[in-house]
Amino acid sequence: MTTSDDSALLRPHAEQAYAAELTALEAADDHARPPSWRLSPHATVDYLMGATLPDGTAVTPKYVGPRRLIEIAVATLATDRALLLLGVPGTAKTWVSEHLAAAISGDSTLLVQGTSGTPEEAIRYGWNYARLLSEGPSRAALVASPVMTAMAEGRIARVEELTRIPSDVQDALITILSEKTLPVPELATEVQAAKGFNVIATANDRDRGVNDLSSALRRRFNTVVLPLPASEEEEVAIVARRVEALGRSLDLPEVPSALEEIRRVVTVFRELRSGLTTDGRTTLKSPTGTLSPAEAISVITSGLALATHFGDGVLRPADVAAGIVGAVIKDPVTDASVWAEYLEAVVRERRDWGDFYRACREVSG
User: Fold this and answer.
1) What kind and span of H or E run contains 69?
2) What's the Cα-to-Cα distance from 259 to each of 240, 315, 348, rounded to whole Å?
């Protein structure tokens, strides 16, 4: 079931949420476009990084980080090599993948979500078994995967969490990426990729349960590593922008009222992640979790929900305390001691952090 009212959707696709920007960029785009691309490579980078168009339209940044990385990613997709976005959790791999597909194909929905149970059919094709039994193998009985559909239509296919997919299933991509064809031996035919087809995969090697890519498959990708935000200001901007977007769909308070707590959460995460306080004076133990911007976004969004429904609508330390403790303490033994030490040695001594210290102590037990 679909709806024409995007405002009623909990999470519109990128091409829906930013339809006006994509249309304006397409109208102003006077650069050469590869076959089947909605925008040129130049305009695609502007869409991701933000720009002001000649007619005054403001294109909001979708990615905060080095422009050169996005240029390399887009240039890769304009060749016959697939793109692998690599990084620790929370470095916006999925976000960048979705927006690249929206800008290039106008459709970010041709998606294979990688899990330990992803079957080969999710990458190649499957069958409607009712029709298969009644009619035998036929084109009507074949169920195309998102990758097969992208090949036939010259669009971008996305494979999320590639390293979570079993190795033998991953290797189903090798023929697709090298030969640009997908054999269907049951029908004595094949699907050849139309111009414009390519694959964007995302992966990280930090989580448990990952499966290393074979050297044969890795050679088919050009790898772009997305780093964690380089500065605190950059990370605050990323968290604030994503919280604002989520808040609009959830009817939560506007972000400006939450900036102080956003900065505090980001500071805590960056210090614990790096093992060093911002002033460089105190060495810290790091918890087992990654404490990425994605987790900071979750902490702030949950805090805003608490402030909205059980407070006065203003985000306060008590609203983020439970979320931040839950994000830090993944291992109840190791991480609990790391967090307790950080609270006493750093948070307790900071001016104007008293309310935050007391709130965290209360939920930490």
Assistant:
1) helix 67-77
2) 7, 9, 21
Residue-number span of the structural domain to which 257 is assigned: 232-364
* Distance (Å) of CA 325 to CA 69, 162, 258, 269, 289: 33, 30, 18, 11, 12
Rounded average pLDDT over 349-357: 93
Q: Are 21 and 39 in contact (CB under 8 A)?
A: no
Distance CA 338, CA 288 (A): 10
Q: At 194, which CATH number?
A: 3.40.50.300
The H or E element that residue 303 is part of is helix 293-310
Task: Give the tens place of pLDDT for each residue, 157-166.
Answer: 999 999 999 9
Query: What pLDDT does residue 3 have?
Result: 47
Q: Give the residue from 119, 118, 77, 79 showing the smallest Cα distance to 99.
A: 77
Least confident range from 95-104, 118-127, 254-263: namely 254-263
Q: Which residues contact 59 (CB under 8 A, 6 or more apart)?
A: 21, 24, 25, 46, 47, 50, 51, 52, 53
Residue 77 bridge partners (DSSP):
none
Strand partners, 276: 283
Question: How many domains is the chain built from?
Answer: 2
Residue with tokens 């087992």: 288
Instruction: Provide the whole-model pTM.
Output: 0.88
Side-chain-side CA neighbours of residue 189 (13 Å): 7
Q: Is residue 249 part of a domain?
A: yes
Indicate if 126 and 214 belong to the same structural domain: yes
